[in-house]
Design brief:
Two copies of one chain form a homodimer. Chain A is α+β, with helices and mostly antiparallel strands. Chain A is built from 14 helices and 23 strands. Chains A and B meet through strand 2, helix 2, strand 3, strand 4 and strand 5 of A and strand 2, helix 2, strand 3, strand 4 and strand 5 of B.
């Protein structure tokens, strides 16, 4: 069979580009850094949105829609924030054929405009916590872009909350981190993540603490899959988000923000994909089982349609491929590229023996299954392959995480995976040196694996890696 | 009780503004014409998206995501299109701190950029029809804006399809019109719509035919709730969307586009709302039944929670209000403002008699119901009030639609509702005259109520009205 993709071992970035193109996930748009997400890619994102949205709502946040355009002056009100985002802004200077009185920017993120309105909506402690989220597009004028991973415009959710106390804000930022993000990534995406605190240098512009979830890609590099920030009272002071406490005192709120984006699609590809294409975990997959008519004749089409309906009734998301005018081999290659977890091939020859063929994307195995047992076999395969994908990724992460004792060793180990060492051996000076060599501190964790409150805690472990 | 809203009869536009503000649906954003959609308003839009998306997918279209920014040059390729949209464009001239080589615009609609990519994706007749849709934000720099009804930025879906023949394109534009839009509006929004063809003057910039769904608001004005366009080969020629036919000939495609937006939220408010606030039809309502604890004591809270769970188990979308620290009257007013179809009041006094009180938003009726029958009574009320809302709106539409014989009478009748008369009595000259007096031809229908293919057909009926 002709080679469809550049093998991962030969050129990983090229493999990634090939998958995105050949599986018809996305392609570059006409304006620099923009992207067109095609049906196959968008269906994956839609499933991510469904799963994440349910978790965000379960955490008590309500969805809203804020404007795309933000007055430039808003960004200037928080010093670190404007410093962080100014180089990446797209500026609208004309509207309706006339120059604007004040230039406005396309939102790179929305802390400032949420802050402006939270200040109006929050009056007393009874209005707190205020828990908001939006699904939208944002735009950051990036210098080097890559489909899904770093695009100028991308789709995401951004949560913005206001709380009466620092403790409450911290609890909520961590609730989203674990109950929405980590739970989704581990249990739906089947992507193991290292959850920790960003160093002061790596944290979000305007935050007092940034929590992160870092996943290891198949080339050993790290991808930040989502972040949750405590913003302290920085934005509350800049936008006058204050409230009358139960004790009758005017107090500033404590705010948080947290986001995850179409970048996760890139993470999914690079964590699970292999030399035949995507492998989409069953719980996420828009199509979990692709029923494929091998060729017409001897009731194959009718049997396939019946199986499709039975699978649907069993709650399986089913695709149906009866395009026998296209060579079977090409259809099989396409199904592999797109990573359908299971394919069921229905053809006259096997049907004569009462069988269909169950093909698992996980390992490419092909098993004849009696038609009467087909639904059960598909459901069982979906269940076990979800776990198997996670286990495989987790084993790889363990294998490619090296415990080291010196910064020099960490930088070396980061060439092929994650390096783990005491944060005390790195420190701010070590971090600078690592950065100069293309390695960054991905996050800090406590010795027991939990997430620290500060990089000054004793005994912290640092994860260093190259990253996307 | 203090007056909450300006009565409709006193000042309808003011009533609308009051409802949007007091029910906390939306408020103006900082940049002219922008809006912030708050949780109560956004939950309504989310339900619209869910219902519409299912219908659009059932019609075979697949979701995608195209870029926000479009090169200005794309718009210039279709003469009528650029003429129609140029006055409304927002232009980005700077990105990443530098002037851009070519200015780009924020999409006012996406025919051009879809056209550019369709041309790449469509090669042969086997690639047709190509049926795409996206949910996104668009921006048109409007001079006079009103929340939901006419905002500069708004949320919508825009479908874009390419077909091998004109007949196929027409069939699909009409399929969306009836099976997605009309079905949703009638059966979910409970809004009767007049479905017809736009005149040449009123059609979309670049279309050969525009189909529309027009609803009557409570002040007798028309609101365009959605449109579906045949674009002929205009965009296919401008963007080179062509294909190799089965006969081996290179042919231009026929394309369509169709859209519906957050404007429908405005239509919902103005079609069903009354002097107490919104009335949301049960099938749409994010909260169908609000279980309200009147006051604590004698097991009221436990009984209310039990009822909430039983309603949820019966598939009802339930809200729960146990905030007994807020005066009961204020909570009742808020529930009416937000238009929950049914409220179930659970209080110690009625509970002593085994009862709860069922309050229907439709007519304000309050009925004691035995706790054991409460779930059934709620489900029955939701069912019948969905129909009752539609019937009420439809009766109003009939009552305020006047059959007239002359243009002068039509213009007069359009002061209070819809005027209906033979299109032959209006014509292009009459249309100009009506427009000068603030009246427009909303659509044309055939005598049998069906949708014409051309304004030149004999015997067509014209609907004239003032409009939003």
């Amino acid at each position: 069979m002709a080679r469809v993709l550049t093998p991962q071992a030969e050129d990983f970035p090229r493999w990634y580009q090939d998958v995105v193109a050949k599986a018809e996930l996305a392609e570059p748009g006409p304006v620099r850094g923009s992207q067109v997400i095609r049906p196959v890619g968008y269906a994956i994102w839609e499933r991510m949105v469904d799963e994440m949205d349910a978790r965000i709502k379960a955490a008590g946040a309500e969805n809203v829609s804020f404007p795309l355009l933000i007055p430039e002056s808003y960004l200037r009100r928080e010093a670190q924030h404007v410093e962080g985002f100014s180089p990446e802004l797209a500026v609208v200077t004309h509207g309706g054929g006339k120059p604007l009185d004040e230039p406005v920017v396309i939102r790179p993120t929305s802390e400032t405009i949420f802050g402006e309105f939270m200040a109006k909506w929050v009056q007393s402690y009874r209005d707190l916590p205020l828990l908001l989220n939006q699904w939208c597009n944002v735009l950051r004028w990036e210098m080097r872009t890559r489909l899904f991973l770093r695009s100028a415009e991308f789709l995401w959710q951004e949560g913005h909350t206001a709380h009466a106390t620092e403790a409450d804000a911290r609890e909520y930022a961590r609730k989203i981190l674990h109950e929405a993000y980590e739970d989704f990534m581990v249990n739906v995406l089947a992507v193991p993540v290292t959850v920790g605190l960003k160093t002061v240098r790596e944290r979000f512009a305007g935050a007092t603490r940034t929590y992160t979830l870092e996943a290891m890609m198949r080339d050993g590099k790290a991808l930040q899959m989502g972040t949750s920030h405590e913003l302290g009272q920085n934005f509350a002071r800049a936008f006058e988000i204050d409230y009358l406490s139960a004790a009758g005192k005017q107090e500033y709120c404590w705010t948080t923000s947290w986001g995850s984006s179409t970048r996760m699609v890139g993470g999914l590809i690079m964590c699970h994909g292999d030399d035949s294409g995507l492998r989409v975990p069953p719980r996420l997959a828009p199509i979990q089982a692709q029923v494929t008519v091998v060729k017409h004749g001897d009731g194959a089409l009718a049997a396939a349609a019946k199986l499709r309906d039975a699978l649907r009734d069993a709650g399986v998301r089913v695709g149906f491929d009866e395009r026998v005018d296209i060579p079977f081999g090409r259809r099989a290659v396409n199904a592999e590229l797109r990573g359908y977890p299971v394919r069921v091939e229905v053809g006259p020859r096997d049907l004569a023996a009462g069988n269909v063929i169950l093909v698992r994307r996980l390992d490419g195995s092909k098993t004849p299954v009696n038609m009467a047992d087909a639904v059960g076999a598909v459901v069982a395969a979906l269940e076990s392959d979800q776990q198997a994908l996670f286990d495989e990724a987790d084993a790889r992460r363990v294998q490619h995480t090296e415990d080291v004792r010196t910064l020099a060793n960490a930088i070396e180990a980061a060439g092929v995976g994650f390096a783990r060492l005491p944060w005390a051996k790195v420190g701010t000076a070590g971090e600078t040196k690592a950065n100069e060599l293309g390695v960054s501190v991905r996050c800090l964790i406590r010795p027991d694996g939990s997430v620290p409150d500060s990089e000054d805690e004793k005994g912290l472990i640092a994860y260093l890696a190259r990253s996307y």
